[in-house]
């Protein structure tokens, strides 16, 4: 068994809406939202079921009673959380010019209760596309968010625990209005191109490149070793950071995995790093920092480096880490984020 061969049966499906009425309105996306590809992001949480002390852990009836209690608390908490986070209960629709917008209409969130015939330690966490995506995490068909609670052999979390919300979201799109006159650095032309300049997409075919997900567990000893190897060429002047080390290693490994292809050394391999622009836009202003911390939606940039596969495979890890250190530099500034908005 490879950790992906198990059955998941959906026992119950319903729609959870906000506990209070929501006035229907449209919420436009910012320019930063529109720059990012429209992909669904999956999140997988594991909770320990609260079973009374002294109960036989093999008592199935008590186990499912505890699971049902947890599910009811999560649904109640979600209905209350959607009052403040009402955008999650809406729908993504197209406006008159074909751009995506959020229709906040309290459509609600698809909420499924399912049972999986697998133990957690039997899951293939290395390959979540096989074991989690579409099984323990549902494929979203409607709305903005979908949730599935799985009985595995086994946020709104604050409200579910009868706590007050610690963060109230801000939907002020004016925080990311373009400047007048607008301006962006020519370097952004290396990151983005007009959609109109792209050729029509080819139909998918077997073996075509596609997005895959992988999870890795790196303990502290391995991380220390990676940092030591990745700091080799700096001559003691600069110690490579954990992020640089962890980014350089898979970049080099991915390049090695395709090095067996014909003329691979003449092809390039790219590595991107997500940069949070909230702190850059705040510029030390406490009020702006507080506003940006609660701002709903994306304030991100994804700068990337591009190197020949031959370079990445033949050069030491320290050389790759130095390249990782260099290419995000232009994206960690306020001017870069403002240029993306413009």
Keywords:
342 residues, alpha+beta, three-stranded mixed β-sheet, three-stranded antiparallel β-sheet, 11 helices
Describe the structure.
The structure is a single chain. The protein is globular, with a radius of gyration of 23 Å. The strands form four sheets. A three-stranded mixed sheet has the order 1-5-6, covered by helices on one side. A three-stranded antiparallel sheet has the order 2-4-3, with no helix packed on it. It is built from eleven helices and ten strands. Helix 5 (220-230) crosses helix 6 and helix 6 packs across helix 10 (317-326). The protein is an alpha+beta fold and 342 residues long. Strand 3 and strand 4 (100-104) form a beta hairpin. The model has no long low-confidence stretch (mean pLDDT 81).
